[in-house]
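ping. complex inputs:
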Amino acid sequence: MTVESNTRHATTARPNSEAIAFLVMVLVLVVAPAFVYPVSLMKALCFALFACAFNLLIGYAGLLSFGHALFFGWGAYLAAHLAKVGTLSLPYWAPDWAGGWAGGWHWFVIALPPLPPELAILGGTLFAALLGLAVGTLAIRRQGIYFAMTTLALAQMMYFFAVQAPFTHGEDGIQAVPRGMLFGFIDLRDQTAMYAVTLTIFLASFLMIHRIINSPFGEVLKAIRENEPRAISLGYHTQRYKLVAFVLSAMFAGLAGSTKAIVFQLASLTDVDWPMSGEVILMTLVGGLGTLFGPVVGAFFVVTIENYLTQIGQWVFVVQGAIFVICVLLFRRGIVGEVAQRMQIRL
Amino acid sequence: MFDFLGISPQALFGQLLIGLINGSFYALLSLGLAVIFGMLNIINFAHGAQYMLGAFAAYFLLNYAGLGYWWALVIVPIAVGFTGIVIERLFLQWLYKLDHLYGLLLTFGLALVIEGVFRNFFGSTGLPYTVPPSLQGGQNLGFMFLPNYRAWVVVLSFTVCLATWFMIERTKLGSYLRAATENPTLVRAFGINVPRMITLTYGFGVGLAGLAGVMAAPIYNVSPQMGAHFIIVVFAVVVIGGMGSIMGAIVTGFGLGIVEGLTRVFFPEASNTVIFIIMAIVLLVRPAGLFGKRA
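pong. complex structure:
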């Protein structure tokens, strides 16, 4: 894999540039609700986390997943369902013991009350990680272009399940999800509290992803990205590393989706369909593949553009497509990658 | 004889025919993808959009130029292929030295632009395109009714697939192509204009998508999103078959269409997902794909 790596170009890094940028980002995000409509900010934060999760895979392991909407959308569905209904009904097939091959579908019911938001989000996140384990196990068996097509196809399969499963309510989605009381005493119906919680989730995940990237595990991922046969010859089980990276990425994508479901009180088919997978790729590409802050900048950029473009309807897709083409042809480092390159720092 | 498991022969053969029709399009489209990937090392995400473009071009020819289906069958593949050549010269030629992924991302962007533009002008509802008079009606085969047009689509698609296979595997031009796929530098040293061959190959693959679009116009409605979901299924077909072999793409395309048709009879809930499930199983059992040479 030789995805144009941004980190490689900035070896003469001053070590504190990332720390300064992080403090600036925190400051901006804390002050921002005073100037910008908080719901737009929360939307951008959820997508920023989604893009960071995606970037963990493409930017550091060199794996292009074209199906990340799967984890975002199903995380959102499960969190919304847990917060609104609770009870889980799992279908399974069993033979009728009367004999022969005849059988039928049955429901395995786990009776649960509607869960508080923290458990709903936890449930959505863990479910996404589980899906990541299943999809990742299949997808990492192929490399490069086939990996992208496999993830896209599996995501489409799960999209059709979402269309058919009764609990998702098809075209309507799961609506009017209660925000509830976080830990029993923080009322999330209050916009400021909701913003604070979303920001906390985002910042904590951002730091965790930063930690992962800079751990020995992250170094091995980068080695796989640069030259997989060499990593294998050095004795690393690259498949295992790629799978763990995939599961982590799916987990954070699920966390982003679950948070989004609680913030907007909605989980719908839009979240699992392929244009969502395209959107997260666009955000990461615009911001800068393989940069720490790129996905965040890219998510805010794309969300802002879409807010301005809502009046022109379908042209949004044309604009998105055009940005893809321009980025790939002229601007492969992305916004943050370009800035980091110019200033010879690491971002 | 045909009445087993309580399924009427009409339903069984009707769905088999639909499966065969879908398979025709899977074969044509995955063939185009395989040819393009062989030469350009790019997965053409815009393939679905170009298929849609072919259907719309046939619609325009009929309604604005008064040229019917048979004219469209000749003109549209050339016209759509020409747009492919323009795209290759304008955009794709700059990507050959980069990672494969950029080609995928760029063609994905192009697909968004093309489909977005058409959706703006034509909305989401489909436009009708009538079956040409000479192919209307059908044959009663006793156990089922076979519409002439559907039979024609299967035969034409099969013929085009075989002709393409013959051209690539059995002619001198095809041997140049295969050689250039293996080692472009060496083939250039023999005085063959490889860059032009690459351009024409992309045009040819895109032209195949345009042809599929014309053939699809009387069967499915002509609509801006007719290609978007279709191309994802074709991707799964390509993962199952592997892109190493032309014949592999054809066999997998037709075969999966038939399997999908049968699923619609016996287990209709899974008809949308069966190809993806097969893909998952193939990845577990034979990661390189049914006809793939290596992982």
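The first strand of chain A starts at residue 88 and ends at 95.
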